[in-house]
Specification:
Elements (H helix, E strand, L loop, with lengths): L41 H18 L5 H15 L9 H11 L6
């Protein structure tokens, strides 16, 4: 006859398991978010990288590409600028540049 083992019953069976930390950095966002892929031109990526390095050099603070892009988008949103009349990307770019005080070349 085979021996039977007594089963262990967890004392914490009614408590929720703690989520395990996943790989990578812990999330730092305070609101819901979505991961979105966009195509940027190489010159734009290089400019964002240069800008991030300049910010780090001047302030000692690290801002990555995504943070810079999010800040620019939020700045545009908070400005209240009406961009609904823009018909093309070039038109939108020129309108934003004029609003910021720099005529787009």
């Amino acid at each position: 006859m085979a021996k039977t083992r007594a089963r262990r019953v967890s004392v914490r069976a009614t408590t929720r398991p703690q989520p395990r930390a996943g790989p990578g950095r812990p999330p730092v966002h305070n609101e819901t978010w979505s991961k979105v892929s966009v195509v940027l031109f190489d010159r734009q990526v290089h400019h964002l990288d240069r800008l991030a390095n300049e910010i780090r050099g001047k302030s000692g603070k690290l801002l990555n590409r995504a943070e810079i892009i999010r800040a620019l988008i939020d700045g545009l949103i908070e400005s209240g600028m009406d961009i609904t009349a823009a018909a093309t990307e070039a038109d939108l770019r020129a309108r934003v540049a004029r609003r910021l005080g720099s005529p787009y070349r």
